[in-house]
């Protein structure tokens, strides 16, 4: 089953040294999961100040700077895994460095197997 692990935390919670250590630990974890054929992707996100939000209301597009919600914790990155069950996803989530200072939300992915073919032009 595929799971998206969403990493939330306060952007100012990490020192530069902690952030560097976090990236090294995360990279080792990604390599380990890849060797076990569990890893599909992962990436940190740029700071929330670089975000752009798009909403469409009554057919009109509204584009604004910043995230959708005002919260103390922001989405900072993700992992995409293919594991046997939720317990395995929880085990990996607990090893993500961001879980030490924030939250890792685990969401199962709905696989869209029977999408209609798109006509090629």
TrEMBL record:
SUPFAM superfamilies: Dimeric alpha+beta barrel (SSF54909)
Occurrences of domain YCII-related (ranges): 1-112
Source taxon at top rank: Bacteria
Pfam families: YCII
Family per record: Belongs to the YciI family.
Protein name: YCII-related domain protein
Lineage: Bacteria, Pseudomonadati, Planctomycetota, Planctomycetia, Kolteriales
């Amino acid at each position: 089953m595929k799971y998206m692990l969403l990493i939330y935390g306060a952007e100012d919670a990490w020192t530069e040294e902690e952030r560097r250590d976090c990236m090294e630990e995360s990279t080792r974890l990604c390599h380990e999961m890849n060797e076990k054929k569990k890893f599909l992707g992962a990436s940190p996100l740029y700071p929330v100040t670089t975000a752009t939000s798009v909403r469409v209301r009554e057919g009109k597009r509204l584009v604004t700077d910043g995230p959708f919600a005002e919260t103390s914790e922001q989405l900072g990155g993700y992992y995409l895994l293919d594991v046997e069950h939720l317990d395995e996803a929880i085990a990996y989530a607990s090893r993500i460095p961001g879980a030490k200072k924030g939250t890792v939300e685990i969401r199962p992915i709905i696989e869209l197997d029977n999408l209609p073919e798109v006509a090629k032009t």
